Amino acid sequence: MDNIYDAMLVTENGTLMYGKYFGRKETTICEMVFNTSMAGYQEIISDPAYTDKAVVMTYPVIGNYGITDEDFESKPPFKMGALIVREYNDIPSNFRYTKTLSELLDESNICGISEVDTRALTKIIRSEGSQKVIITSSDRSFEDALNEVRNYEIPNEAVKRVSTNKKWYSRTANHKYNVVAVDCGIKYSMIKKLNQSGCNVTVVPYDTSAESIMSLNPDGVFFSDGPGNPTELTGVIETISTLRSKVPMFGIGLGHQLICLAYGAKTYKLKYGCGGGHAVKSVLTEKIEMAAQASFYAVDMDSLSETSLTLTHTDITGKCVEGVACIEDKVFSVQYHPESAPGPQDSEYLFKSFTKLMEAK
């Protein structure tokens, strides 16, 4: 083996690959998923939904436009576990860039590995499901690395680690509505879209009670996306249940799953998650929208029949719940990301739908 390959990747199914370190050069163990986006690696790294994940980028060249200070989706340090790429470009060509991807990963204590077969890794995830992976020094024994990754326990309570500790504000000129955003791992782009829709936004911790939220006199309440298993967040589910019919609510990603749980639906873990571009279909209009996702849990379709929620969006196969609504309670949510960072902008109208509910109230 050529000594330029200083890193080793071992999955829990026994796959071994050698590659090159970039970013923080240290042993890392986490759950491996993939993302199909052709651009937007900075937004993916700073998206709290990828907390504790080793993300395999299916696009072959990553790092070519560097890092730009204005494009982060959350504050550092970021909680992503690792970044796995085919080819890493450390000479960015972009007049806006302020640092390289490797420099960002090093600052954020995130391990990167390149020169590995990302197509093969993606096929493993697709056929066998998301699984644990270890990235470590290439001079370590395969048996030792495999034993460590198989015995590793994936941490819980990811939302607790990424949510804000205190409330903060994002205001806009000539606002019409006051929105309380419950931070389960919120992205800045979600807040920006609410601001652009005429909303002053008060961001509060994930464990804020319904009483505290209502004391802020909101016109609407927004539940953000975030990482981890939604069934762990019993407090947020109870809050949503208490707020039902009292105030319009809108949820994205994890927020969508939490709203569905509060109405009595069930969720399950996806075999390999959904990261990157994804097509969804409106049940009402049958219009196809291109959307971005970062989801690793989903709502069970059959369980919706036991709730007062109506299915509004599915994937193009009609098998996955991509959106729901309860007209009577002025509540709706979507699994995908209408804020489009990164991704297409087909679904930005959902933020206007939220303001219309608040206006009607």
What do you see in this structure?
This protein is of the alpha/beta class and 361 residues long. The chain contains 10 helices and 19 strands. Strands 10-12-11-13-14-19-18-17-15-16 form a 10-stranded mixed β-sheet, with helices on both faces. Strands 1-2-8-6-4-3-9 form a 7-stranded mixed β-barrel. The chain has a two-stranded parallel ribbon with strand order 5-7. The longest helix is centred in the C-terminal third of the chain and has 12 residues, at 349-360.
Question: Which features characterize this protein?
Answer:
single chain, 361 residues, alpha/beta, ten-stranded mixed sheet, seven-stranded mixed β-barrel, 10 helices, 19 strands, 23% helix
Task: Provide a brief overview of the structure.
It is built from ten helices and 19 strands.
Write the layout of secondary structure elements.
Blueprint: E1 7-11, E2 16-23, E3 28-35, H1 41-45, E4 53-57, E5 61-62, E6 82-84, E7 87-88, H2 101-107, E8 111-114, H3 118-128, E9 131-137, H4 142-151, H5 158-162, E10 168-170, E11 177-183, H6 188-196, E12 199-205, H7 210-214, E13 220-223, H8 234-243, E14 249-252, H9 254-262, E15 267-282, E16 288-299, E17 310-315, E18 321-326, E19 331-334, H10 349-360
Parallel strand pairs: 3-4, 4-6, 5-7, 6-8, 11-12, 11-13, 13-14, 14-19
Antiparallel strand pairs: 1-2, 1-9, 2-8, 3-9, 10-12, 15-16, 15-17, 17-18, 18-19
Helix pairs in contact: 8-9
